[in-house]
Design a protein that fits this description.
The chain has 606 residues and is an alpha/beta fold. It binds glutamine hydroxamate (HGA).
């Protein structure tokens, strides 16, 4: 999290910083700040709250200068106020830093610095970096940054400038940094969309890289000063795609992008004539005995769908772990384990560290990931990219359905390779999978969307919600509840429907809307029995039913019809209706769906 932008060249730096930060605001919006260098001075302007607070002031009083650094913050240490906003400076204001990450030993470093006469302005961990660099500075900024970083433990993407140098020095450990290469100008950012309007030539810095940027070039070394070669990748993302494109919010745009995102996930990978799936990965599908899926948040729920699919179709034991638990529970891993990490950004620190834990135990590793060139992709044996395109809305939508799509492909691939699926079964499932983009398109048709909006508004004043689902759609219920919580702040619980009677049934009364995923499935009758149990306690049933199921509609207060899909792929189609339910509830309540409170995307702190 935290958005970082740096610029050196001939443009007005302020313009590049503000436009870049606007594209990164999903990474944090507790405060925003810039520092712009002009001749012999660096001027800092920073403000608590969203970027608009700062950009409004800068419009009135622009900061001239062609070198600058900027930051949007998701606070970890210190309140989200003006003082704790980045950039941070030394006492004399001559050296300026921005930082993404956490300096874990900052308290002891700070105590030492105070003893040696430094005064601190903020409560952040980040400020120690400014003072440490100043202490090590003897005319060579790069050397001073290197010496300071040798003293810190933790995660950082750090960008530094000094009044006496026309250069920017940056370094990363764990937190991401990408460099944009222009003609006579250079850029830095924590993510690609910030730079797309200026350049498509990007260098993804690796863990432990340091870079010095000048107007006409750059030099990469490791933290010890040894030169490093990194390729320049040409990014084919459309800058338009990273913007809202006419929708009210990124989230809504991304919901509507799902047919295209799924097409990209599946493209070139399905061969229905032979029943084969081509994933272009080198993994030996017969070389392991069990699978550990490791992820956080929405990606974790995609992993739960994956567990069901892989166990059903490929008959391999799968367990799914929350990454922050996995990494500290001394997991049982061997060379017969395949660890699958799932992450939109490929930067989620909990998942990255869990991946390292799995590798230590000898596991083979595979990632289901969206962002190319991200940290995880460099440490994995194989990556199955979901190709969903940039996801800016903090609450994941298209990345979720594409992750589930990727698990369908993986389960089929494993099932074929391990002989658990016949040609006929594989062909049927491949056909069903190929249908997904069309079915999701159909799930988004205006009449259905209007009905979801009506139901969302009808129950928008509810204090709590309950979501239920069974089998492969139990995780659909979990993800539906998470989406509602994230963006509308309504308390929502989710349970496997059969589990309701073992506890949560006590919550049911006439004020509780209960969303039941009851689409076509071998468990449908059992799910309908659970619906009856809710009705018997006066709960309000909102049923997700397959098109044409008028019989079961009679048991529900409200029905959201979704296109009929093969049970194994139905979580993709069903998720869309629940995304829209959350979306319309939140917008009706006046919430900012793209920047829900307390949340940020691409969580690079523990
Ligand atoms: N620890 C710093 C930076 C926080 C961060 O990177 N968030 O994602 C702070 O609290 O300002």
């Amino acid at each position: 999290m935290c958005g970082i932008v740096g610029y050196i060249g001939s443009r007005q730096a302020q313009d590049v910083l503000i436009s870049g930060l606007a594209r990164l605001e999903y990474r944090g919006y507790d405060s925003a700040g810039v520092a712009v260098a002009d001749g012999g001075q660096v001027v800092v302007k920073k403000k608590a709250g969203k970027l608009a607070n700062l950009s409004g002031e800068l419009e009135q009083q622009p900061l001239p200068g062609t070198l600058g650094i900027g930051h949007t913050r998701w606070a970890t240490h210190g309140l989200p106020n003006d003082t704790n906003a980045h950039p941070h400076t030394t006492e004399d204001g001559r050296l300026v830093i921005i930082h993404n990450g956490i300096i874990e030993n900052y308290l002891s470093l700070k105590a030492g610095l105070i003893e040696r006469g430094h005064t601190f302005q903020s409560e952040t961990d980040s400020e120690v970096l400014a003072h440490l660099i100043e202490e090590a500075y003897a005319g060579d900024l790069e050397a001073a940054v290197r010496a300071a970083l040798a003293q810190v433990r933790g995660a950082y993407g750090i960008v530094v400038t000094h009044v006496d140098h026309r250069e920017i020095v940056a370094a990363r450990t764990v937190s991401p940094l990408v460099m944009g290469v222009g003609e006579g100008e250079m850029f830095l950012a924590s993510d690609v969309p910030a730079l797309l309007p200026y350049t498509r030539d990007m260098v993804f810095l690796h863990d432990g890289d340091m870079v010095v940027l000048h107007d006409d070039g750059y030099r990469i070394t490791d933290l010890q000063g040894n030169p490093q070669e990194r390729p320049i990748d040409r990014i084919d993302w459309d800058a338009e795609a990273a913007e809202k494109g006419g929708y009210d919010s990124y989230m809504l745009k991304e919901i509507y992008e799902q047919p295209a995102a799924l097409t990209n996930t599946l493209m070139g990978r399905l061969h229905d004539d032979t029943g084969e799936v081509n994933l272009d990965i080198s993994l030996d599908p017969t070389a392991f005995k069990r699978i550990s899926v490791i992820a956080c948040g929405t990606a974790y729920y995609a992993g739960l769908v994956g567990e069901y699919l892989i166990e059903q179709l490929a008959r391999i034991p799968v367990e799914v772990d929350v990454a922050s638990e996995y990494r500290y529970r001394n997991p049982l891993v061997s060379e017969h384990t395949l660890a699958i990490v799932v992450s939109q950004s490929g930067e989620t620190i909990d998942t990255l560290e869990a991946l390292r834990e799995a590798k230590k135990g000898g596991a083979k590793t595979l990632g289901i990931i969206n962002a190319k060139g991200s940290s995880m992709t460099r440490e994995l044996d194989d990556t199955l990219y979901i190709h969903a395109g940039p996801e800016i809305g903090v609450a994941s939508t298209k990345a979720y359905t594409s992750m589930v799509g990727a698990f369908v492909l993986l389960a089929l691939w494993l099932g074929r390779a391990r002989g658990t699926l016949t040609d006929a079964q594989a062909q049927e499932l491949l056909r069903a999978t190929r249908e997904l983009p069309r079915l999701v398109e159909e799930a988004l048709n205006p009449a259905r969307v209007a009905e979801i909006k009506r139901v969302a508004e009808k129950y928008a004043q509810a204090r709590d919600y309950l979501f239920l689902g069974r089998g492969v759609n139990a995780p659909t219920a979990f993800e539906g509840a998470l989406k509602l919580k994230e963006i509308s702040y309504i308390h929502a619980e989710a349970y496997a429907a059969g589990e309701m009677k073992h506890g949560p049934i006590a919550l049911i009364d006439a004020n509780l809307p209960v969303v039941v995923v009851a689409t076509e499935s071998h468990l449908l009758e059992k799910t309908i029995s659970n619906v009856q149990e809710v009705r018997a306690r006066s709960g309000k049933v909102i049923a997700l039913l397959s098109d044409g199921d008028t019989e079961n509609a009679a048991h529900a207060d409200d029905v959201l019809y979704v296109p009929r899909a093969h049970e194994m792929v139905s979580p993709v189609v069903n998720a869309v209706a629940l995304q829209l339910l959350a979306y319309f509830t939140a917008t009706y309540l006046g919430k900012d769906v793209d920047k829900p409170r307390n949340l940020a995307k691409s969580v690079t702190v523990e």
